Amino acid sequence: MDLTLYVKFFLGLVAIINPVGLLPVFVSLTSHQNDIERNHTGKVANFAVVVILLVTIFAGQHILNMFSISISAFRIAGGSLISIIAMSMLQGKLGEVKRNKEEGREASGMESVAVVPLALPLMAGPGAISSVIVSAAENNTFINHVGMSITVILFGITSFVLFRAAPVIYKVLGKTGINVITRLMGLLMLSIGIEVIVAGFKGLFPNLLN
Q: Strand (E) positions, 65-178?
């Protein structure tokens, strides 16, 4: 098992999902809940994210094969999507690309916000799913998939701990501090997106880029 691969995969999830940047959104969506209910919402949301990403790891390649989509073409599409979300993060916009206004209005009237819109599409959105499919396809062995699954579970636990401490972290960092972190994550995420796009073009046009 390549530890470097899993560390890179973990950091990629942190950059793309950006749980710290989502803290203000989480606090806002759970403002009507008490501490016990807020912790339960965080637990359900992160459990849902882990399940979605685990299914993506093991079924993503089969889904691409079903629609006859090459991994190179999906790299370009996924990398472009990741880059678009990253550009939004660099501008300090939280969740605007991942959720439209209609979904926002629907969420405000929901009793439970854990699965929709928190887990999907805010956390396990198209960018995260695309990144996981690409990573799983590039490291298509059972042992690597197991290692990536463990990494996803560790990410879910880390994210839940952050959400559990959300009110305190939000007060300490403030909106400015979280915006700074979001922009840094956006820059890292943009770099990941560009690398994925370049790898896709290399796969589609190997002679052109050599």
A: none
